[in-house]
Amino acid sequence: MNNTDVTLELERQNYFIEQCREWVKKQSEILKRPLTCTAKTFGCQMNAKDSEKLIGILIKIGYVETDSENADFVLYNTCTVRENANLKVYGHLGYMQNLKKKNPNMMIAMCGCMMQEPEVVEKIKKSYKFVDIVFGTHNIFKLAELIYRRIETGKMYIDIWKDTDMIVEDLPIERKFSFKSGVNIMFGCDNFCSYCIVPYVRGRERSRKPDDIIKEIEQLVKDGVVEVMLLGQNVNSYGKGLDEEITFAELLRRVDEIPGLKRIRFMTSHPKDLSDELIEVMKNSKKICRHLHLPIQSGSNRILKIMNRKYTREKYLEEVEKIKAAMPDIAITTDIIVGFPGETEEDFLETMDIVKKVRYDSAFTFIYSKRTGTPAAKMENQVPKDVIKDRFDRLLEEIQKISAEETQKRIGSIQPVLVEDVNSHDDSLMTGRLSHNTLVHFKGTPDMIGRIYNVKLESAKGFYYMGTIVEE
Ligand code: SAH
Ligand code: SF4
Ligand code: F3S
Question: I need a surface site. Which of 61, 71, 314, 469 has the fewest CB within 10 A?
C-alpha cells in the first residue's frame, strides 16, 4: 500500500464521516436529544489506543461520549488473549440484548481481537443477532463507512480483514487523558510464542515511519501531553521492514530530543531482542522512565523452548544484570504463565527461582489458557487445574513478598511524580505515578493534575506509597 492509496482512503473515510454526521443530526432532531456513544475496552494498551481512535471518529460524526452502556452507539473492543477475556464480552452482550429492546435506536458494534476469530463471528451471527456491526483489528479506520453501510442495508454489517499492510495516519482521536498518551510505533507480532493468539489476530509486524511517530508526539506535546507510552507487542524489534534503517534505541533517542516532553515509557520489550544500545540510551536519558517491563513467561529453559520464546533463563538473567548495573534503581516488572502444557514441578521451581533472583517490583501472573489455533493448544499433557491453582498461589505469595520488600526500599526518598487523578477513595488526596510506575497518594488539589511534583515517599501500603509534596 503506497502513500497515495492511504491518502485516498482517508478522503473516502472523511466522505462517510460527513454522511453519518447528517444522519446523526437528523436522528437527534427526531429524538430531540443528542445521540450518545460509549466504548467498552478489554485487553491491552493497543486496544485502549484503538478505542480512542474509534471514539474520535464517533465524536466527529456527532455522537456525545458517555460512560453508560445504555447509549445510542455501544462499541465493544474485545480481547481474546485468554478465555476469561472472551467470557466477559459474552456476559456484556447478554445484558445488552435487554437494553436494546428498550432503546431500538441503539447500535451495537463489536471489534477487536476476538472478531479476528471466524468461530466468534459465526457465534455472533447465530446467537447475537441484535449486534449491528462487526469489524476487526485491521480496519478500525473504516468505522464511519461501516455505520453508513449498516444504515443503508438495515442488516448486521460484517467486515473483517485477515491482515493488512496499510497504516492509516491522521485519524480523528479522542484522548482519554490530557497529559499522557499512548503512541503506536508498530502493529502486529511475528514472534508466534506457541501459547499466544496475538500474531493471528493482530497480523504481521509492521512499523510506523519514525517521522510520522515524531510528528505525532510533537503535536501531542503542543496539546499539553507530558508523557508518552510507545506501544508495540515487541518494541525491541521496531524498524524491521522500513526503508530507513533504524533501531528502537535510535527511535528512543529521537523521541528523547522532543522539547517539552517530560517522560517516555514503552511496552512491551521482548527479552530476545533487548540490545546493549537500548540499555545505554535508557541510562543516558532523563526522560525515559526507570521502569522496564520484561516478560519472562517461565524460568525453565525446557518450557521456554517449547514456548518458542528464543532466550534461556541464563540469557535473561544476564540482561537483567546489565540493566541493573546501568540503572541500579530501575523497576523491573514481568509477565508469567503458570501451567503451560507439560510444566512439571521442577519447571515451576525454576520459575520460582528466577523470580527470587530478579526480584521484580511487580509481576502479572496468568493461568495458562488454551487458545484454539495456537500450537500449544494441540499439545498433550495439559496440566490439571488443581496443580495449576496450587502453583499459582505459591508464585503469587512469593511475588507479593518480594514486591512489598522492593517497594519498601524507596521509602524516605524524594521522587518526581506525575499527578494523574484525584484519589478514588479520598478526594483530599491526589494520585500520581513515579518514574518506576508505582502509584503514590498525597495531599493536593485537582489543579495539580498533569504536572510533575517532587514527593517524599513516607510509607508503603501494599504496592503503593503515601507521601508528601516537598516542592514544586
Ligand atoms: N507482546 C507481549 C505480551 C502480550 S500478551 C510480550 O511478548 O511480552 C500479555 C501477556 O499475556 C503475555 O506476556 C503472557 O504472559 C500472557 N498470555 C498470552 N497468551 C496467554 C495464554 N494463552 N494463556 C495465559 N497467558 C497468556
Ligand atoms: Fe504473543 Fe509472543 Fe507476540 Fe508477545 S511476543 S504478542 S507473547 S506472540
Ligand atoms: Fe488482547 Fe488483542 Fe491486546 S488479544 S492483549 S487486546 S492485542
Answer: 314
Bridge partners (DSSP) listed for residue 180: 227
Predicted confidence (pLDDT) per residue in 112-156, tens digit: 999 999 999 999 999 999 999 999 999 999 999 999 999 999 999
Give the C-alpha separation, 46 to 42, whole Å.
10
Euclidean distance between CA atoms 472 and 453, whole angstroms:
5
Q: What mean pLDDT comes out for the span 204-208?
A: 95
Q: Which three cell numbers stand for residue 208?
A: 510506523
CB 13 within 8 A of CB 142: yes
Asked if 467 and 429 touch (Cβ cutoff 8 Å), the reply is no
CA dihedral (262, 266, 272, 273) positive or negative: negative
Query: Collapsing DSSP states into helix, strand and coil, what is residue 71?
Result: coil
Question: Ligand 1 centre from 367 Cα, in Å?
Answer: 10
* Residues 159, 132 contacting (CB under 8 angstroms): no
Looking up cell 458494534 gives 109
pLDDT in tens, 257-302: 999 999 999 999 999 999 999 999 999 999 999 999 999 999 999 9
**Cβ–Cβ < 8 Å for 279, 326:** yes
Q: Is the peptide bond before 268 cis (omega within 30 degrees of 0)?
A: yes
Residue to mutate (ligand 1; options 197, 335, 336, 388; most atoms within 8 A of CB): 335
Whether the CB-CB separation of 145 and 16 falls below 8 Å is answered with: yes
* Centre of ligand 3 from the C-alpha of residue 82, in Å: 9
For the purposes of burial, counting CB atoms within 10 Å of the CB of 81, is it exposed (0-12), middle (13-18) or buried (19 or more)?
buried
Share of the chain above pLDDT 70, in %: 99
| CB-based contact 258:214 (threshold 8 Å) | yes
Q: Which residue from 81, 116, 191, 237 has its CB within 8 A of the most atoms of ligand 2, so it is best to mutate? A: 191
pTM score of the predicted model: 0.95
CB of 271 within 8 A of CB of 296?
yes
Q: How far apart are CA 271 and CA 311, in angstroms?
A: 7
Tell me the one-letter amino acid at 277.
E
Kind of pairing between the strands at 107-112 and 133-135 = parallel
Q: What percent of the chain has pLDDT over 90?
A: 91
Q: What's the whole-number mean pLDDT along residues 152-172?
A: 89
Q: Give the type of residue at 460.
A: A
